[in-house]
Amino acid sequence: MTAAESTAPPRSGAAPVFLTGAAGHVGANLLHRLRGDGVNVRVLLRHADNNEAVDGLDVEAVFGDIRDLDAMRRAIDGCRGVYHVAAKISTIDGDRAHRRELFETNVLGTRNVLQAARETEAGRVVVTGSFSAVGYDLDDPSAASTETMPFYPMARTMPYERSKALMELQCWRAAATGQEVVVATCCAVVGGHDYFPSRLGRTMCDYTKGTIRAYVDGGFEFVAARDIVAGHLLCMERGRSGEKYIFSSEYKTISEILDLYESVSGLPRPGRRIPARFMLGLTEVSSYYLSRFHPKVNQRFTPGAVRLLQLRRHADTAKAREELGFEPTSIAEAVAEAYAFHCGRGRITNPKANPPAAGERQSDAASPPAGDPRTGAAP
Fold first, then answer.
1. Residues 17 and 33: beta-carbon distance below 8 Å
2. Residue 83, class by beta-carbon neighbours within 10 Å (0-12 exposed, 13-18 middle, 19+ buried)?
3. Cα–Cα distances in Å, from 377 out to 79, 105, 235?
4. Residue 139: how many other CB atoms lie within 10 Å
5. If 33 and its partner were Cys, which of 87, 179, 222, 365 is the partner (CB 3.0–4.6 Å)?
6. Which tens digit of pLDDT belongs to each residue from 333-345?
């Protein structure tokens, strides 16, 4: 796609906010929250994607590619406020073409969105960052990371991690010129409106099918979909330009996540734990083979994913709490929302699985807005 094409004429009334990545997990939850708050939204979609996230919503859709600067200028023109959520997410090393796509999408695409927003005077841009691009204590990786810790590129890192760290440099460069840019740093997302589905969504569905018979323990920071959405709104409303904020709900081990899956589904969790060193060696071989000969096969475990889990990284969310008023909710509730969503989509087919809890919501983020998400005005 070399140009942005619209499916609807611009509507009268308040200028819309612009949202990239609306088809993805974070973007879909953000879109539903914005529309629930009555905000006009113009979304950027791609014809090749699953765009069910916008079905039934009163939004203005434009089709284009963030790697096309001219398309971004046309798409953003007339908007007030930009949420740039779109990114290519991957835990594999991949081949040269894969790594180039990561760079062009996550780094150059972000540069294009920022430049287009600046040239069209669209106002503040909130960019979705990744906790994997936040640094950590090299002597104690499990110590809580803060926003001030620089990304460490000397260890073996995934191309995705490097691309998100380079993406942030585009944000800081734009902020240095006076553009209003804030980064909302996202951890592993749990919740509904997961249309693709996400990596965690697929894992939950596979769990209920009984295809997960063992696990590799480790841990990571997880964020409820409603919480990362609230974080984006808070960054738009109250965040300081040129700063990033980490949003996480809770640190969980993989064993604890499986306990939550068992609780919502009623299906017994696997009890066999695979040693991390063995799994790392196995994934080195399998990922190399699959990436080169079966690149379309989803890889549940990759060397990068195993390494991240073994670091057992924790997040310090004090900055988001103190400056923005961020109040994280429960991952257990987010797992229940995700389960209800996947049940509703017909993805939980095991007849022995529990039905979702009565009245379970599907992650239309519940935190009240702190101001006008279009203008950045405080209440």
1. no
2. buried
3. 16, 31, 11
4. 6
5. 365
6. 999 999 999 999 9
Taking the C-alpha atoms of residue 191 and residue 363, their distance in angstroms, rounded to an integer, is: 6
Q: Residue 284 and residue 294: Cα distance in Å, rounded? A: 15
- Supply the pLDDT for residue 359: 65
Work out whether the CA dihedral 276, 282, 284, 286 comes out positive or negative.
Answer: negative
Q: How far is CA 216 from CA 36, 132, 371, in A?
A: 39, 19, 43
In contact, 132 and 308? CB cutoff 8 Å: yes
Structure tokens at 94: 């991949």
The domain spans of the chain are: 5-196+219-250+311-329
* Res 364: pLDDT: 43
83 backbone dihedrals φ, ψ, rounded to 5°? -110, 110
Q: Distance between CA atoms of 285 and 306, rounded to whole angstroms?
A: 13
CA distance 53 to 65: 18
CATH code, 5-196+219-250+311-329: 3.40.50.720
Cα separation, 47 vs 26, whole angstroms: 19
Which residue spans within the chain are E strands per DSSP?
A: 5-6, 17-20, 41-45, 60-63, 82-84, 125-130, 144-145, 181-186, 188-190, 214-215, 219-224, 243-247, 250-253, 272-273, 314-315
Question: What is the identity of the amino acid at 311?
Answer: L
| Residue in the structure block whose two tokens are 């017994």 | 268
DSSP code per residue over 349-365: --TTSPPPPTT------
Write out the two tokens for 278. 């063995």
Cα(153)–Cα(25) distance, rounded to whole angstroms? 27
> Cα(312)–Cα(58) distance, rounded to whole angstroms?
41
Q: 379: Cβ–Cβ under 8 A, 6 or more apart, which residues?
A: 370, 371
